[in-house]
Amino acid sequence: MNRRIISLLLALIMVVGVLVGCNKSTDRKRDTGNKDAYDTEEDKAIKEYVLELSEGANYEGRTFTYLGGQQENFPTKEEETADIRSNALFNRQREIEETYGLDFVNVYDEDGSDSVKDTVINEVMAGGDSYDLVNGYVRSVGRPTLNAGVLMEMQDLDHIDLEREWWNQSMWDCYALDGKLFFLLGPITVHNYLDAHIVIFNKSVTEMYGINDEDLYNSVKEGTWTIDKMFEFASKIPDNKSGNGTYRYDNPGGRSFLYAAGYTITKFDENGDPYVEEKLPREFSDLSDKLVPVFTDPAQSIFVDPSKKEEWDKKYGMSEEELFDNDRALFMFPNTSAVEYMRSFDVEFGILPMPKLDESQENYYCLSESYGSGSTGAVYVPKTVSDPEMTGRITESMAALSQIYIKDAYYEKLLKGQGIFDMESADMLDIIFASKVYDMADLYCEGNIDSLGPFIEAIDKNFKYSNANFSSDYFANAKIANLNIMLLLRMIRSSN
User: Which spans in 281-381 are helix H?
Assistant: First the structure.
């Protein structure tokens, strides 16, 4: 009798638990593949904010034109599809159109950043106003358009609240010139989730050499994930002197370790003006002394030596991703864009932030890359835009709604939902995106999308191989960098 009662009670508890669980999941439902799906309280507050922002605006029959050269920031079709990212972009656009009564026009330039940059410069120089908002890489679109003096100051746009959570607040510390911002960063562009430097580790290799994945994750949570701790874990793999075994490191990039250690290239004086130290900072050489012997050891690291003009394919016969995929390396150091594209390889991996210099360092820092496939993306407003008020309202609305659509679709569903192999990696992604750092060097170093410019290139290479001329290379390029900074500030101040 008692057993029957207990069984009935247990059954009732299970039923109630299922019902409660269903109610809880309904409260949290957030299917951004469907614009009309149930919203969270946060989503409702954002939509109310956008509606309030639209009050008094009469844009019926007007057109808002959005230009860019990266397909990731545009829906693949002007309709709902099975693609999560495209769907999110389309639904954000549809909500803008319905809220403001305008026609949202996407202009995707298949020729990419250089073409977008030329289009914006030529348009403004000719006095044209064909585009209301532009997106593109900071280095290949932002730098040349800023230097050409064709961008509007974002503070001049009404209705944009730069203190809201959908704008990346570190842009003030990293990109403000003379107290002015000329472009904005945040989930408004998909590249917000593609650009952070990370560490990924091969789960087959950790199992092969008795490295506990939980120990790796716990070191991050406990604040002990440092360069030396990374070396310690990797030391469980014997030296690969034959070249036929497993390496510890796969093509490590030194500059990301520089920022991870809390160092930056750009400094700011007492007036807030940027500059670079013309004498080689001691921390640069100290960190180089720590990294170079390990990262250039052919028994430990997969790398090509630019000083010897080595070619990757001839040396290894396959790409770095393929080497990692074939369990030939423990650690690899890509951008967060790899979380998506590495799923095309048959390898399970875990995700970690860049390691600290030592345990006394309070925070992790993950460099936001400014070039390549996982680049820092921003939005810009051409100086000749015909209706700054409309541009301000729509840009702020796009940014706010991106918290619902873009953040959820790319970050929660694609990266954390489909891109990872364990829940600990989801926790690591939260740490990584809370730790992103930028550097203004994007704006004053010469170069284009395929080149970092001589100054940053010299710094980057120094952490990849032993460069006896680094001190003199640094000095010569630092002087040029400071000259470029002076010219950039002069241009901005003369435009007032």
Answer: 282-295, 312-316, 320-325, 338-341
Find out whether 120 and 128 touch, Cβ atoms under 8 Å. no
Q: Whole-angstrom Cα distance, residue 233 to residue 360? A: 20
pTM score of the predicted model: 0.86
d(CA 147, CA 444): 9
Q: Where does residue 212 fall: left (phi above 0), alpha (psi -120 to 50 degrees), or beta otherwise?
A: beta
User: In terms of residues, how long is the chain?
Assistant: 496
Q: Are strands 349-352 and 199-202 parallel, antiparallel or unpaired?
A: antiparallel
> 3-state class of 392 per DSSP?
helix
Tokens of 301: 């690291």
Q: pLDDT digits over 5-32, tens only?
A: 333 333 333 333 333 333 333 333 344 4
Residue 400 has pLDDT above 90, yes or no: yes
68 secondary structure, DSSP code: E
Domains of the chain, earliest start first: 34-194+376-418 (3.40.190.10), 199-367+435-494 (3.40.190.10)
